[in-house]
Structures are given as structure tokens and as C-alpha cells.
Specification:
The protein is an alpha/beta fold and about 240 residues long. It has two domains: about 120 residues, Response regulator (Rossmann fold), CATH 3.40.50; about 100 residues, Winged helix-like DNA-binding domain superfamily/Winged helix DNA-binding domain (Arc Repressor Mutant, subunit A), CATH 1.10.10.10. Helices cover about 40% and strands about 20% of the residues. The protein contains eight helices and twelve strands. Strands 2-1-3-4-5 form a five-stranded parallel sheet, sandwiched between helices. Strands 6-7-8-9 form a four-stranded antiparallel sheet, covered by helices on one side. The protein has a three-stranded antiparallel sheet with strand order 10-12-11. Strand 6 and strand 7 form a beta hairpin. The longest helix has 20 residues. It is elongated, with a radius of gyration of 18 Å. One of its GO terms (molecular function) is phosphorelay response regulator activity. Keywords: DNA-binding, Phosphoprotein, Transcription, Transcription regulation, Two-component regulatory system. One of its GO terms (cellular component) is cytosol. This protein is a positive regulator for the phosphate regulon. Transcription of this operon is positively regulated by PhoB and PhoR when phosphate is limited.
Length: about 240
């Protein structure tokens, strides 16, 4: 049975198609969300400055500034979920959106029911991340210090600038050093385990995380690939 969306969850739809947008707004509103609509990046910025938002649904193909640039800025300035939407179905667009910090990706044309399901999944993961009450102690994993309560991590005492998904992946892997995590297990960190996902989404986030911790992808020190299965963390 599908779970209802979180109470009063607020979604900002950034979509320039004035035929599609009202349909999306109506469907999500009927499903219990609070939904606002912005037709371009400037309007989205203005709304985010004035209102609290839990999730942004961004079309890549916007007039003027595109959705990818907007995604980068939202991820930098706001701690909210992001779903990228575009008519372009190439893998490069999916990877680019994930690389900029999007939590999920949905190609057009899409089912309104699928968008609703993906929105619920991203929001559930965000709620879990923000409402968890972890132990106050900081986990030490080799040169890493991971503070689950503050959702911060350091490497050799230097703060790491991680997205929500990258932090979740690092905390999951480092929390059980030596254990092999399959991609399916790690998809929980990427999408909350609620919707279909593709292995490349995990690989992309792992690649971004490796870059930020200085792990050579050819000979990684900390996050090692277990071919055909997934990844294992080594604190050495």
C-alpha cells in the first residue's frame, strides 16, 4: 500500500510548459502536497528566498538559465530534495544532474503517478535524515570522523563538502568497515529504496565521493570496488 506524503510537504515545481505544469500541480495537490509553480530559474530563486520548500522538481530545459545550473545553486544554498526532469533521455544528462546533487531523475514523458512516488521517496529519505536522533559521539573510521547528529564529516581533520547523498553513502560504508555493500543496498542511500533505480546512480555518487576524499578511482584507498557486487570501505 502506498504511504501518504509527509504532512504539509512543500514542493516547488520549476517547469516552463504551461500545459503540463497545471496538471502536475493539481495531481500533487490532490495527493496531499503543498505545491507552487515557477516558470523559470529567476522565479524559482525568488520563491526559495521567500518560502520554505522541502522538494524541488526541476525541468532541465528552462528558458534562460537551465535547470542544471539552478540545481547546482539550490544544492549549494538549500538543504532540500531535488528531482530533475527533462525531455532529454541521454545518460549524460542523468549523470550530470546526479553529479550536481540531484536526488533523483525522471525523463519526459512521465506518469504523474510515478512522479508522485518518486517525490514521496525523496521526501521520506530527507525526513529520515533530518529527524534521526543518533548518538552524540563522533564515529572514527581511520582518518575519517563522521558526526551523524550534525551530518558532517572530516578527513585528516579537514571538513568535507558532501551532498546529502554522499554523506549517507560514506556513513553507511564507514559504519561497517570491511563489509561488502551491494548496489541494491546502497540505493537506500540514494533514493530511499522506494522507487526503481539504476546501478549507475550509485556509481556516479560513489565517483563523486571518491573525488572529494582524494580516492584514485583506479587504485582507491578507502572505497574499493568489489566487481560484480558493489563496494567495500577500508579505513586504512
Amino acid at each position: 500500500m502506498a504511504l501518504p506524503p509527509p504532512d504539509a510537504a512543500r514542493i516547488l515545481l520549476v517547469e516552463d510548459d504551461d500545459r503540463l505544469a497545471p496538471l502536475v500541480v493539481r495531481h500533487l495537490a490532490d495527493s496531499g502536497f503543498q505545491v507552487d509553480w515557477a516558470a523559470d530559474a529567476a522565479a524559482a530563486d525568488a520563491h526559495l528566498r521567500a518560502h520554505a520548500v522541502d522538494l524541488a522538481v526541476l525541468d532541465i530545459m528552462l528558458p534562460g538559465e537551465d535547470g542544471l545550473s539552478l540545481c547546482r545553486r539550490i544544492r549549494r544554498d538549500h538543504d532540500i530534495g531535488i528531482i530533475m526532469v527533462t525531455a532529454r533521455g541521454q545518460e549524460a544528462d542523468r549523470i550530470r544532474g546526479l553529479d550536481l546533487g540531484a536526488d533523483d531523475y525522471l525523463p519526459k514523458p512521465y506518469s504523474l503517478w510515478e512522479l508522485e512516488a518518486r517525490a514521496k521517496a525523496v521526501l521520506r529519505r530527507c525526513v529520515r535524515a533530518g529527524s534521526a536522533q543518533p548518538a552524540p559521539t563522533i564515529r572514527q573510521a581511520g582518518p575519517f570522523q563522521i558526526d551523524a547528529s550534525r551530518r558532517t564529516a572530516t578527513l585528516h581533520g579537514q571538513a568535507l563538502d558532501l551532498t546529502r547523498t554522499e554523506f549517507d553513502l560514506l556513513a553507511r560504508l564507514a559504519g561497517d568497515s570491511g563489509r561488502v555493500f551491494s548496489r541494491d543496498m546502497l540505493l537506500e542511500c540514494v533514493r530511499g529504496g522506494e522507487t526503481d533505480a539504476f546501478d549507475r546512480a550509485v556509481d556516479t555518487h560513489i565517483s563523486n565521493l571518491r573525488r572529494k576524499i582524494g580516492d584514485d578511482p583506479k587504485t582507491p584507498t578507502f572505497i574499493r570496488t568489489v566487481w560484480g557486487i558493489g563496494y567495500r570501505f577500508h579505513p586504512s
